[in-house]
Amino acid sequence: MIKKNQKGVTLVTLIIAITIILIIATTLIYNISTGNKIKQLNNMYQDIEKLKDKIDLYYSRYHRIPKLEGRYDNVDNIKHINPNDSDTYYVIDLEALENITLNYGKDYKNYKTNPSIDFTDLYLVNERSHAVYYIKGIQFDNDIYYTIPDENSMIELNEMLTISVIGKNDDFISVKMEAIDKTEGITNLTVMIDEKPYKIYNYTSEHREIKAEILQIELTNVQRDCYFKVENETGKSKNSNHIVLEPKIISVKKLKVGDYIKYDTGVKGVGVITCRVLYPIDSEYGLQIISDKNVGEDITLGGDTWEEGKIIYNGITEKLNQEASKYVNGEYAYDGRCVGSIPTIRNGMFVDKNKLRDSEGNIQDKLDTVSIPESYIIPTGWTKDTGCYEEDTNYITDQIALEKANMWITGEKYWLVSRHILLDLSRISFRVRNVATSSDLGSNNMCRVRSDGTTGGNLHTYGLRPCISLKSNIIKITDGDGTSVETAYIIGK
């Protein structure tokens, strides 16, 4: 006999309990499986990150990817992932990479010994994009992952051919050449100047990318066109953009003794003359040029009488320097003097050009005058003093500089700012120094007094060679190379 209030487990309760237990068990199993898949996927991601870093480092050193010989062709499952990929994939040469430990890629050694598409536990690299793939893939949910997910857009690499200026000085220009061709490769790069090869770089057949070639190009005195072209193994070529190589800027600091310079005198009928550097800018006399040949009309000095000749003789320094100063073009020059005068300069001006240098080399305003020897008859009305200055040595500094530069003899006769006295038993001649067409130092008589008391004068005609002090802080050289009359430097501002 059964009592109605007896407690017990009903069939419905049992079924509910079993169902709950099954749900919990299923959830646990799913979570464990999902956790394992996530771990596997993350392991692949870690491997790919390591491989990408190692491959970039290897490529920067050797300009090629670390790969085994022979392409891997079982790639239908990955070839549409990255639009920048080429059709060529290789198994990564893991032994070429230093200090790398991976979670996958266990088929590497088997594949290296016996290459076969049946091996899939491998990591591949694309020839063009250098993207890394795990060809076996990791399944998660309903998808299979072969690489780290990324939003890849197509990058046109073939058109990256650029040349640009990265530095410049007076003599050289530095250019940077960037070229990328990961599809067809680059076997050589040729720098072209005015359509002529200037420098050629050769690369191996596996060289796919040139990130930077730096080249120093020596500037010339003319403007030139510059670009580069690249060629691949098939001979196909592509050209970069063009840049302009501006003419060389010659600093006046680099002008050296003897360089030819065109100088505009600003004088009507004379105009531009050819000069040469007599003293460079770093000399104690500053930047001075001297006419290569005589300038303007020849100058007649002396007189028909003693008095006329004496005036010219005593005033020869001021006379010749004044004539030379006519050719000072204030746009380019500070001051002018005649060759043979004292070249001392201060703030661009010739401060001693009208002074005299005695036999000991000392600079004075005026020298003593000459006395008539006791053996001479003093002309009627004279004192013993001739009234003519002693001779000077003004010319010596210029002579040394001119002879050293082979500019002393020009084939023309020209005056020097310097007095000379010739004394013998029969006469005293007061003379002005000169340089003849093919001789060394000479002099011409301006006036004379003989031992018998007679006097006289003479006239002589020679040319003028001005020396010009240039405004070195203002002028610049705009053209020419200074090596000849035809290619003389051109002065500008």
Short summary:
The chain has 493 residues and is an alpha+beta fold.
Task: Tell me about this structure.
- The chain is α+β, with helices and mostly antiparallel strands.
- The chain has 3 domains: 130 residues, no CATH class; 85 residues, Immunoglobulin-like, CATH 2.60.40.10; 240 residues, no CATH class.
- The chain has 5 helices and 32 strands.
- The strands form 10 sheets. A 7-stranded mixed sheet has the order 18-30-16-15-14-32-31. Strands 8, 9, 11, 12 and 13 form a 5-stranded antiparallel sheet that branches. It has a 4-stranded antiparallel sheet with strand order 25-26-27-28, with helices on one face.
- The N terminus is likely disordered.
Query: Which word captures the global form?
Result: rod-shaped
Biggest sheet features: 7 strands, mixed
Question: Which stretches are low in confidence, meaning pLDDT under 50 for 5 or more residues running?
Answer: 1-6
Strand order of the largest sheet: 18-30-16-15-14-32-31
Summed up, the domain count is 3
Q: Helix- and strand-based class?
A: alpha+beta
How much of the polypeptide forms β-strand, as a percent range? 25-35%
Number of helices: 5
- Rg value: 47 Å
The mean pLDDT is 89
Helix content: 10-25%
Cα-to-Cα separation, first versus last residue? 133 Å
Number of strands: 32
